[in-house]
């Protein structure tokens, strides 16, 4: 067949990136398991994600609010939870989660379009919504619609069916100085509805 060369899509210079584009969430923060569920086969094992019930740790680690990641300060291996799952409420009720990516722009090309690349390593009955600088923005800048049936989170995996979303962001949505991207997993009726990101990149015009 000869040599096959893959060139990933790119429209402009990289402003920032989160993760490693390897179709896996392995590089992100994977917590220690609840001692009640610990599997000794995976203690001190590189496949930490094989432990049972890790999705429940999200609400324990973020009891008062959802994950906030600051570009240039946060470290994705410590500060980016490996799966964006629902938040448990009282009883058997669950609520949507909204993660924030905070970043600064030194300038803003008002005539151009920014590109947000969202590579998803796994999705299970999720609706991913993107908003810019306004968590109540309606409609959202982007919605994936309801996607995913691979259940990698429930099956203690670290990747499933790969998805790539290329989201165009009008420059008028961004400002010089502080900006925030809001990533909402809006479908929230069970504990196992969630997604694992592979890689996120923002490109300038």
From TrEMBL:
Checking CDD domains in the record gives: RGL4_C
Question: Which Pfam families does the record cross-reference, listed alphabetically?
Answer: CBM-like
Gene3D superfamilies documented for this protein: Galactose-binding domain-like
Q: What is this protein called?
A: Rhamnogalacturonan lyase domain-containing protein
Kindly list any coiled-coil regions of this protein. Answer: none
Instruction: Tell me where on the tree of life, at the top rank, the source sits.
Output: Eukaryota
Recorded hits in SUPFAM superfamilies, A to Z, give: Galactose-binding domain-like
Provide the Rhamnogalacturonan lyase domain boundaries. 14-202
For this protein, the record's InterPro entries field holds: Galactose-bd-like_sf, Polysacch_Lyase_4, RG-lyase_III
């Amino acid at each position: 067949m000869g040599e096959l060369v893959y060139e990933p899509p790119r429209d402009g210079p990289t402003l920032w990136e989160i993760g490693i584009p390897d179709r896996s969430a392995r590089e992100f923060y994977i917590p220690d398991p609840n001692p009640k569920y610990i599997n000794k086969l995976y203690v001190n094992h590189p496949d930490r994600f094989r432990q049972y019930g890790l999705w429940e740790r999200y609400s324990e680690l973020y009891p008062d609010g959802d994950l906030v990641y600051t570009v240039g300060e946060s470290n994705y291996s410590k500060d980016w939870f490996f799966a964006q799952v629902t938040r448990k409420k009282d009883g058997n009720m669950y609520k949507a989660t909204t993660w924030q990516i905070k970043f600064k722009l030194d300038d803003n090309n008002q005539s151009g379009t920014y590109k947000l690349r969202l590579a998803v390593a796994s999705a299970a009955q999720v609706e991913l919504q993107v908003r810019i600088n306004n968590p109540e923005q309606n409609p959202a800048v982007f919605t994936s619609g309801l996607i995913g049936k691979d259940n990698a989170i429930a099956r203690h995996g670290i990747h499933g069916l790969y998805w790539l979303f290329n989201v165009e962001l009008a420059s008028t949505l961004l400002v010089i100085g502080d900006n925030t991207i809001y990533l909402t997993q809006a479908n929230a009726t069970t504990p196992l509805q969630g997604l694992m990101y592979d890689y996120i990149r923002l490109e300038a015009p």
